[in-house]
Structure formats: C-alpha cells, structure tokens
Amino acid sequence: MTKNNNVDTTRRNFLKLTGLGGAALCLGFYFPADGVPTLVTPAELTDAEIELCPWIIINPSGKVTIVNHRAEMGQGSYHSVPQIVAEELEVDMNDINVIFAIGNEKKYGGQVTGGSSTIRSSYKNLLKLSAASREMLIVAAAAKWNVSITDCYAASGLVIHKPSGKKAHYGELALAASKLPVPKEPKLKKISEYKLIRKPLKRIDTPLKTNGSLIFGLDKRIPGMLFASVERDPRYFGKVKSFDATQALKVPGVRKVFKVEMSYYEYKREGVAVVADSTWAALEGRKVLKVQWDSSGFKHWSTPEIYKTQNNLLHNQEGMMLKTLGNPTEILAQSTKKLDVVYQTPYQSHVAMEPINCIAHHKGESIEIWGPIQAPGWIQDDISKQFKIDKEKVIVNMTFLGGGFGRKAMIDYPSEAVGVSKIIGGPVQVVWTREDDAALGPFRPGISYRCEGMIANGKIEALKFRMAGQNNDHWRGGAKDKPNRSTSEGFLKPYYESIKNLSIADVLFETTIPTSFWRSVYASTNGFAYESFIDEMAHEAEKDPLDFRREHLQEDRCQKLIDKMEEVSDWKKRAKNEGYGVAITECFNSTVGHIVKVSKNPQGGIKIDKVWAVMDCGWYVNPDIIHAQVEGSIVMGLGAATTHQITFKDNVVEQHNFYDYPLPRINEIPPIEVYIIDNEEDAGGVGEPGLPPFAPALTNAIFDLTGKRIRTLPFKLSDAY
What is the greatest pairwise CA distance in the chain? Predict the structure, then answer.
C-alpha cells in the first residue's frame, strides 16, 4: 500500500502523484442537472459543467489511484472505498493507492463526512464506475489481440485471453481503453459472485497507524509555520475586556500575543492568541496570560435550571408538531390508565482522541488550510464569507482524523486559525488543549422528553412524545417556528403502521450554550426515551418486551431482525434471576437491535454480563469494520449512559479532562457479539446506528432484574441496585 497522504493534492501534483504520462484511463462521475450520474472520460468534461465524485485512475504501470473525497476518522472509508473498487475492477487491494481530495464540491460532490453517508451515498456509483473501467480494458485487450470480447476476462489487474492464455496488465491497455466509449450500463456482479466485498479483509490503514507513518492533523508541518494557543471566554460569547501579556511575552519562544476572533455560524467568539515557535511555548505563555472578560448581555445557565425549564415547558406546551396520526391527545385526555413520564439525557462532549487543531495560511489573495476536517465544503463557505475571498481560493486539505464524532465538521477552529494567520502574515497551527475541547463545546444537547401512552387490548392505543432540547439547526440560521426535523430520529418507521394514534412534537428550548452533532445525533437521546417508554408500555400490557415489539413492527426486515436477536441471545431461555433488556432503533437507513444481559454485582450494584447487537444495514462491504464500529458505538454509549456528562454552573462547564469526564475503561467493557443481517437492500449507515439502542437496552435490563426504572442519564452502575 503506497502512502501519499502528506502530499498536497493540487491539480499539477495530482497528475505527478498518480504517475500519468501520456496514457491513463480516468473515469469520474458526472452529475447533470437531473442528478442522475453518468460515467464520463476526461475528454468529455469541462470545468464549467462538471461535479466529480471520486476519480479512478489507471496509470501506464497498471497502478490504480483512488481520490477519496471524504475524511477518514476511524470509520474505515479509507479501506472500504478501495475494497469496493477492487471488487468490480478486478485488482488486488495491494495495487491500489489512496489519496485525499482537497475541498472542491464542484469537482468531487458533497464532501461532508457525517450521517454515516460515505458508503451508502456512493457505493452504487463506485461499483458502476469500476465495472465500466473493467469492461473498457477488456474491450481494449480484445481489439489488441483481434479476439472476441467474450473470450477475455479480467483478474488481478490483468486482462486474460482464455483460449490462448495471453495476458496484458491494465497499464498496457490504459491508453487504448481511454479512447473507447464508456458503457452506460456495465454488468455488475451478483453478491454471490463477490470475492472481496463482504469479506473480512484486514484494513489497509492499520499498519500505517501502528507504525506511526500516517499524518494526522497534529503531525502536519508547513515550512515557516508557527504555533498558537488561544485563551477563550469560558462562557462562550463574552468579549475581551482587557489582557496583560507581560509575563507571556517573557516565555522563551513566544513571539506575539493579540486578540483574535472566530466565527461559530452567525455568532462570534473572542480570544487572546499566544503565538510561539512551538506548541509548548505557546501553552506556557498562555498559562501566565491575564485576561478580563465581559460576559454580560446574555443569560448564564446552570444545569438544574436547564432541566427545570425543560420540564416546565413539557408540561405547559404542546410544542410544534412533527408527526401526527389519529388523535392521541383526545384519547389520552379521556384515559384513566395512561402512562405519563419524563426522560432526561445529559449534555455530552465529543472528546475525540486527537484534540482540535488546524493549520492555516492566509496568503492575502488566497487561504490554505490543513487539518482533521470532516466538512471541507462548509469550511470553504464560511471562510469565503468571513474573509471576503472567493470560495475557489480557499483550499482545504484533509488529513487523517484521530476521531471526529461530528465535532470536526464544525467551522469554528479553522476560522480561528485563519484569523491568527492573517494577523501574523504566515502559516500557523492552532492547537486546542483537552481542557479547551471539554469546556468550549459544541456539545450534544441535553434533552428532556415527556412520554404519554395507553394500552388497549394488549397493544398501544395512543402514544404521545414531546421533546424539549436545543435544536442544532438554530445555530445555522434554521427557522425557529418549525419543529426540529430530528425529533423522530431513532423511532422506527413501522411503528407508524401499527400505532393509529401517535404524535411527536418539538417544544422550543434555547440556551447560549453551543450545541451540534454528536455520534448518531438525536437518535442517541431519542432512542433512550422512546425505546425505554416502549418497554414501559410492554410492561403495562403484561407482554414480553421482545414479543411486544414484534407485534408492533410488522415490516419483514424488522421481523427478521427480531428473529435473529431472539436466536443469538437465547431470549426464550433466560432465567428468572437474570435481567434482559431489549431496544431497537433506526438511523441513517440502518436498523440495530441490542439485547443486554445484567446481573447483581457481588461488590454491589449492577454488572453487565453481555451485549448482543444485530445490525441490518442492507448492502455492506467489510464485516470486520462493521463489528468494530458497532463495538465502538456500544462503548461510547456505555460512557454516555453511566460514566460521564457535561454540567454547567453560571454558564461555565464544570468538567475539565478525563479525570472528571471519565471514559469507560477496558475492564468495564462487557463481552459483545455483533451479527449482521444478510440481504440485498440498499446500503445504510454503519458508523453511528450501533449507538442509540444501548442505553435503553441496558436500563430495560436493569428494570427486568430489579423492578427499578431508570429515566435519567447518566447513572452509576454501582447505584443501580
């Protein structure tokens, strides 16, 4: 595997990098106005009319290069995309070279790495593009040998003439193939014919990560680069009243200290930057910097007040309706046996292993950025507007990300780095400390849910959900008179068929605390409330919780998923002194069910004995990557449910680092078994959908064992019994 992730992918370097001489087969995606992709060759393209997704390039030596337009932050796209291409192109994985694209939505299409979208949004086009390349190479070989196309086939980067045994590697055929018309409907393999896809191939980036040769944002270096650390208002949007840099400037290596501003959508955050010859010097200078803040002019929140306000809103407002079926309000108002409870989930930080960092160089007429970035297009849009430079002159280079979880899709840290660079007139790397990351957000919003429902004839007669929590869209100028579009996220669509009286509403709640995407977004909080309440309804109906869900989820795929959950967990054979909990959620077109088994811990509290996870993500690439993502999601869900939260006092975060925001330790992770449903449905997401079912499955299991219903997260396992 050749590694070129430290090379700047300008157009000129791109051609040098891929070894293009006078002959190459290059195919990309063309997106016309109707949005239907068509395969094209470079001769058919003009800069004025194209938007390209990943390019596949075969150079004269036969090497295949893929330009990955999305970020790699641990989710596996750096491996999965080549695995798709290698399957239909008939090349060995070791003969593929992968490089990151620069930010260019006109050329590569959407580049936001989020919503578990990389594979599900591009796999069909990647398969088609790769198959078309293979067919063109076969046609070129057949013409060269003057033989029938049907007597030729491709394997391991070669075209082979079956009767004679003649062979030609792809590089020999690239020039001739590039002059051929592109097949409009290349023949794709059946799933049963796959040699690579759906196989647990070892990830090609693992050796590079373990030997330290990959370039993450923190590793990147630019000639002449300085380093900066920024002191920022802990209440987010205060102003710099004054600062004293006397002692900071005495620290060896510190060059400059000055006020800087960064944008967070329509908001501005001020800080004082310490610029130095090294990160260490910048941090030491910042320690002795004295800053006075003016944090007046906006409300200062504390955690108890947040949840008290949300609870009052839920009991005094109907909210903005997102989904309504029948008339649940009237039916519940007349009922004397309804359930009416509130669930609460906390604010959470992202705490990715690689802290926030970004390199920027404001060159006057253009700006160039390097770093761990999930959304280069968003960065280009923001920087272009903020610094009044054409978007095309804002160059964003993606490095590997040491975790992202949505945080590194934000625009604030690149904006700040560009601001520092503009003042010093050269390139600079701005590095956030772990304390900066924990305290400054943006955070997953803390949310309260009011859940009402009633049972009739053993089934749900009426169900009413109301959510009060910050709407992430409002930070990006979203309309405040419309419900949060994610209010129903995580709630399975087949419920709409079986529950005739149902409503889901958003009750407007806002604070000055910045919030944004967190792994699985609102499904991570919705799932806890909605699937916990479904469990309460099952108990009210005196039904087995898994059977109860089976009755209400009549869709065939859900039925098969439940069958698998029941089979792998021996659900029907569970003992009375064991606690079993179930939850099923859906997000990003994938459905995941968890079953959690718990028991009494001899040392006190609850012990998690085992977790079974069953995922239906439709078409998929690599089962090992799926297992890793689901396992990681469960660990992250465990932490969010039982070990950490972000709390506020006077609008200041009370947590600082891992000592008071503790992540689960390896000895706290239960055995996990992951199962994948095989089918040929459209691909769903993998990186996020495995998280939402865990918390409700766990608390439902605790209820099954103890009779204690947990409705507020986080809780301590040691106190759960």
Answer: 84
Report the distance separating Cα 269 and Cα 263, nearest Å: 6
Q: Are 511 and 306 in contact (CB under 8 A)?
A: yes
Q: Are strands 394-398 and 367-371 parallel, antiparallel or unpaired?
A: parallel
The H or E element containing residue 283 is: helix 279-287
The residue assigned the tokens 């939402």 is 692
pLDDT of residue 46: 38
Residue 200: CB atoms within 10 Å: 11
| pLDDT tens digit sequence for 497-533 | 999 999 999 999 999 999 999 999 999 999 999 999 9
Q: What is the pTM of this model?
A: 0.92
Distance between CA atoms of residues 27 and 39, nearest Å: 7
Q: In this structure, what token pair is assigned to residue 41?
A: 């060759």
Question: Letter for the amino acid at 705?
Answer: L
Owner of token pair 């190459």: 24
Enumerate residues 6+ apart whose C-beta is below 8 A from 265: 382, 411, 475, 476, 477
Positions in the chain short of pLDDT 70 = 1-55
Q: Is 459 within 8 Å of 538 (Cβ atoms)?
A: no
Cβ–Cβ < 8 Å for 676, 623: yes
pLDDT confidence of residue 24: 59
Q: What is the CA radius of gyration of the chain?
A: 27
Rounded-to-integer distance, Cα 178 and Cα 180, Å: 6
Tens digits of per-residue pLDDT, 159-173? 999 999 999 998 899
| Distance, CA of 712 to CA of 716 (rounded, Å) | 11
User: Of 205, 644, 590, which Cα lies nearest the Cα of 402?
Assistant: 205
Strand 96-100 to strand 64-68: parallel, antiparallel, or no bridges (unpaired)?
A: parallel
Whole-angstrom Cα distance, residue 561 to residue 496?
A: 18
- Ordered structural domains, the chain, with CATH: 11-210 (3.30.365.10), 217-295+356-431 (3.30.365.10), 317-347+443-719 (3.30.365.10)
Q: Can you give the pLDDT at residue 95?
A: 84
200 cis-preceded (ω within 30 degrees of 0): no
Q: What are phi and psi of 356, to 5 degrees?
A: -60, 135
Q: Which two tokens stand for residue 282?
A: 């910048």
Among 655, 116, 718, smallest CA distance to 346 is for: 655
Which amino acid is present at 192? S
Residue 461: C-alpha distances to residues 292, 326, 493, 497, 598 (Å): 58, 10, 17, 12, 31
State the amino acid at position 11 in one-letter form.
R
Size (the chain), residues: 721
* Angle value at C-alpha 437, between 435 and 438, nearest 5 degrees: 65
Give alpha helix (H) positions in 441-522. 495-498
Residue 133: count of CB within 10 angstroms of its CB:
30
In this structure, the strands spanning 606-616 and 590-600 are antiparallel
Cis status of the peptide bond prior to 442, with omega within 30 of 0: yes
Cβ atoms 57, 25 nearer than 8 A: yes
Using CA atoms of 403, 406, 410, 414 in order, give the dihedral in degrees to the nearest 10: 10
